[in-house]
Amino acid sequence: MNAITPTATTSPQFADLDAQRAYLEANTGIRGLEILAPGDAAHAPELFRRDGFVVIADVLDSAQVEFLARGCREVADEILALDTDRKGNRGSHRYSFGGSSLTRSQLHRPEWRMLLENDIVNAVVAGIFQSPDFVLRAASGDFCLPGATGYQPLHSDVRDWKDGVSTPYSAFHDPRGQLTIRDLPCPYVCANFLPQEVTRLNGPTRQIPGTQNSRHPIPSLAEEPEWMRLSTVCPAPAGAVMIRDVRAWHGGTPNLSDAMRAIPNLEFYAPWFREPIVPGISHADYQTLSETARRRVRHCVLDSSETLVTGPTLRAP
After folding, report:
1. In what order do the strands lie in the sheet with 53-56?
2. Can you tell me the distance from the alpha carbon of 145 to that of 135, in angstroms, rounded to the nearest whole number?
3. d(Cα 87, Cα 148) in Å, to the nearest integer?
4. Is 4's pLDDT higher than 70?
5. Does 2 have pLDDT greater than 50?
6. Which segments of the chain does DSSP mark as H helices, in order?
7. Residue 13: what pLDDT?
8. Count of beta carbons in the 10 Å neighbourhood of residue 117
9. Paired sense of beta strands 53-56 and 35-36, if any
10. Which of 10, 132, 180, 261 is least enclosed by beta carbons within 10 angstroms?
């Protein structure tokens, strides 16, 4: 997939939302999508390296799913109170949990801290990095509402450092101009947890397999072929996790359902990779974590003499 060359195609034109729903029900979804059971999670790093993502079911039990879903709804309500027009901060009716927080994270919330203690996810991420010494970057994710009828452009979540103004959170730079961050082993993963089923209609993530190492320019919406628009990770059950190489091309799709779709996440740096990290957890909350989790979030904790200022915003500082 490294030499993938998109060819522009014309997307279907729909007379109304019912026609668009029927089209997506019939056509969207990665064919042959493999969703692993927890007992098969040892194979996850292999699929991750091949495709740039992997999905594992049943990493959360029903009580954890409800706890996480309730937390997502509470945070979303706080954010939406600031945006009555639903303009979003990731596109219309689309929001970043981190980009809508004064700390650029939701690590101050117990629902996100719960995810740090997930043994299945921790084992898979350790397998991807071949080391248990990975560290947390942030606890974030996104949500989209009914009314998000368009597509978010394909994008990657990490890029090469250019300068301290335009790329303040980027780190990798080869002054020789020979290597890019796409030539490295995976430096940074995102684990998106599903507090509800992801269907063909509620805004599934589209993920373009094998693009994590591609140097080809990411196509714009006008250039993107229709097969990419339909390359969505669905259906996937509540309680599952999608672990992504953040370099792989991905984007949001229409939410034509009648409910919010949320995918809260944890973001982890490889043991050998660092970019600037914004503190996201108070020292008091940090002390409630297990020893392993404390080591994992050690770069995110605020000094005990300082107070963590949290709250919703539409534009994170």
Report:
1. 35-36, 53-56, 241-245, 188-193, 261-269, 135-144, 94-96
2. 31
3. 10
4. no
5. no
6. 17-27, 44-51, 62-80, 110-115, 119-129, 226-229, 283-287, 291-296
7. 86
8. 13
9. parallel
10. 10
